[in-house]
Design brief:
Bound molecules: zinc ion
Order of helices and strands: HHEHEHEEHEHEHH
Helix content: 40-55%
Strand order of the largest sheet: 2-1-3-6-4-5
CATH architecture: 3-Layer(aba) Sandwich
CATH superfamily: Zn-dependent exopeptidases
Oligomer: single chain
Structural class: alpha/beta
Radius of gyration: 17 Å
């Protein structure tokens, strides 16, 4: 327990040092470049993928993607708020956010549309959607960040998040950021800079065990937050 707390704090202090170092080193030009999204307190829309009737991907042991997405998203909210960011959550409990509809298909459509509305209403924010991956073979592992092509800032944000995860949490992770296709509705229709962080593979044993652990979820949240800080 004590060891856990020590590790937690040393990780936290390390992040703080990285962050402070970053702000000190940041040049005036870099700050101007991101000024558009830095009017007052930077705002981040955090979108825990799926929820309610839509469980997302399911691991072989029955773990639902939607539950881990929410846990990581809530931890991300806590860290970002600590750093002074303003945050908006698309959901805070196990629910979809659709308007009432009869068929699952129209409910899913409505859910996606309502998530998009968060961007519509918060044009000064950046949008971070939290998901988990699943593949047909168990070998694929590691987090991967996808970005919207609608704003050039999306790619920069994805790059910072991916770099941060690899540097702080997954040194073995060689994955590169990818542009979201038209299948990724929220990225394709994004109204603000937007990324999806696939935090790991439910189909990989190591990833699954990590993703279920509170400690890993917290570290993943810190790593994503660190990427956001580097973006601003
Ligand atoms: Zn998902």
């Amino acid at each position: 327990m004590i060891k856990g707390i020590k590790q937690y704090f040393s990780f936290f202090i390390f992040l703080l040092a990285v962050t402070l170092g970053f702000f000190v080193n940041k040049t005036e030009t870099q700050i101007k470049a991101s000024a558009r999204y830095y009017n007052s307190l930077p705002k981040v829309i955090i979108d825990p993928g799926h929820g309610g009737f839509d469980g997302g991907a399911v691991a072989f042991d029955g773990t639902n993607e939607k539950d881990i997405n929410l846990k990581i998203a809530k931890k991300l909210e806590t860290v970002l708020r600590f750093y002074g960011f303003s945050t908006v959550m698309t959901r805070t409990s196990d629910m979809a956010i659709n308007d009432s509809g009869e068929k699952i298909r129209s409910q899913k459509k409505s859910d996606m549309y309502n998530r998009l509305q968060f961007m519509e209403k918060n044009r000064d924010a950046v949008f971070i959607s939290i998901h988990l991956n699943k593949y047909t073979t168990s070998a694929a592992s590691g987090a991967q960040t996808f970005y919207s092509d609608n704003f050039p800032e999306s790619k920069t944000l994805a790059d910072e998040i991916q770099k941060s995860i690899a540097a702080l949490l997954e040194p073995y992770n060689k994955r590169v950021i990818k542009k979201g296709t038209s299948d990724a509705f929220l990225l394709y229709n994004a109204k603000t800079p937007a990324v999806i962080v696939e935090c790991g593979f439910l189909s990989n044993r190591r990833d699954l065990e990590q993703l279920k652990s509170d400690d890993f979820q917290r570290k993943m949240a810190f790593a994503i937050a660190n990427g956001v800080i580097n973006f601003y």
